[in-house]
Design brief:
There is one protein chain. It contains 15 helices and 10 strands. By secondary structure, it is of the alpha/beta class. Strands 1, 2, 3, 8, 9 and 10 form a 6-stranded mixed beta sheet that branches. Strands 4-5-6-7 form a 4-stranded parallel beta sheet. Strand 6, helix 12 and strand 7 form a beta-alpha-beta unit. The chain is globular and about 65 Å long. Bound molecules: ligand V47.
Length: about 375
């Protein structure tokens, strides 16, 4: 170990010692890593943490997404998914359409349905109450991860109800957890440029806090690689870490790299692959209290997601069944679809042991071929 550290700076050695001793790294230390350290050093440390908890285990699930509509009144500049009603391709699904889609896509025993979409001017709480009720009646066992804090705020505003009321209504109709989107960078100056109409930082955090206090778990994300600075990434993660200290309600953190295709934000460069790996690693090191880091392959591509599993990530997300367009429209995987066998083989080839998980990260079936 000493040889590995001998050419490292004093600050890097201090960070390494903190990791060995299971001591939380500070915001300053995370910023130092972003500004000064190479991906291999960050990845080496992150992998120590990851293996301490999970050894060679990697989690995946069998899931589909339901993107009800891409018509959205928020018009965020980084988003390649939203459309105005008359634009092409703008779509909106009826409840019947959605039930047919779920039936078609759920043939291999999916355990999770992830429901999101734009803030549609007419589809409000009553539509989603009916949707959840029908899904729950037909699929009593499936985990419904639905909506981001942004949608919860929209329902609360349009119904003139509290966040707690809205979350309570959705929970009673079958929603099990909240998705992690809409966090972007939790700094309102940055949001003013990226997404001025979107939920403000404090509200995003407040809705997750209330959800956690009501026993509704959630995920959290970061959208990075656009106008933000390293210090903004650290600030964002600090906000999430502080909330997690308070509630323990986040299941996983999903770093989402800004994809430049097909949106109005005039940034055409994307974060390099080595920087992306480093970002996974620093997330793992800094967010010591969030149990899982997800390498979301429809966004990053399969190869990058596999590499991220050696840089601190432990979750490969799921089979997807070509059911999401957010990332294909932004320049990610064109047809995001992997069979369970493909996932297991990919993970095995990369040196991991694949475990199918449910949405609460309880292992469902150990892969018998290992
Ligand atoms: O909030 C939109 C991001 C998010 C772009 O909870 C973009 O398990 C990069 O949050 N480049 C929505 N990112 C997706 C999301 C998500 C995905 C998978 C799993 C889970 C989960 C959550 O996608 C948005 C935004 O941050 N996004 N456009 C883009 N051009």
């Amino acid at each position: 170990m000493k040889e590995i550290l001998q050419h490292r700076s004093v600050k890097e050695i201090e960070i390494a010692e903190a990791v060995f001793d299971d001591i939380r790294i500070s915001s300053e230390q995370a910023l130092y890593l972003y500004e000064n350290s190479d991906p291999v050093f960050c990845g080496w440390l992150a992998n120590i943490l990851k293996e301490r908890n999970y050894n060679q285990r990697v989690f995946y699930n069998k899931n589909i997404h339901v993107e009800v509509s891409n018509i959205c009144i928020n018009r965020c500049s980084f988003c390649s998914f939203y459309r105005d009603r008359l634009d092409s391709p703008a779509w909106e699904m009826s409840i019947d359409d959605i039930m047919v889609l779920i039936a078609e896509k759920s043939t291999d025993g999916i355990t999770e349905i992830h429901i999101t979409g734009g803030l549609h001017p007419e589809k409000k709480l009553a539509f989603y109450v009916e949707l959840l009720t029908q899904i729950r009646a037909k699929y009593p066992e499936v985990h419904i991860k639905a909506f981001t804090a942004v949608e919860i705020e929209y329902f609360a505003k349009t119904e003139n109800r509290s966040y707690q009321d809205v979350l309570g209504i959705l929970k009673s109709c079958g929603m099990n957890s909240l998705a992690g989107g809409g966090a972007e960078i939790l700094d309102d100056n940055i949001r003013e440029i990226l997404c001025p109409l979107k939920t403000k930082s404090q509200t995003w955090l407040e809705i997750h806090r209330i959800a956690h206090e009501m026993g509704i778990k959630s995920n959290c994300t970061i959208l990075y690689g656009h106008i933000e600075k390293y210090k903004d990434r650290v600030y964002h993660m600090r906000k999430l870490r502080e909330l997690q200290d308070r509630t323990g309600g986040f299941n996983c953190f999903i770093p989402l790299k800004y994809k430049s295709h097909g949106n109005s934000l005039e940034i055409n460069t994307e974060t390099s692959l080595s920087e992306e790996l480093k970002n996974y690693a620093i997330s793992r090191l800094f967010l010591d209290n969030i149990p899982h880091i997800k390498a979301y392959w429809p966004m990053s591509g399969v190869e990058m997601a596999l590499m991220a599993l050696s840089f601190g990530a432990d979750d490969f997300d799921g089979t997807i069944s070509d059911s999401t367009k957010i990332y294909s429209m932004a320049g990610g995987e064109k047809k995001p679809e992997l069979s369970e066998n493909q996932i297991r083989n990919l993970l095995s080839e990369a040196g991991f042991i694949a475990f199918e998980r449910n949405s609460e990260y309880v292992v469902i079936a150990e892969n018998e071929i290992y």
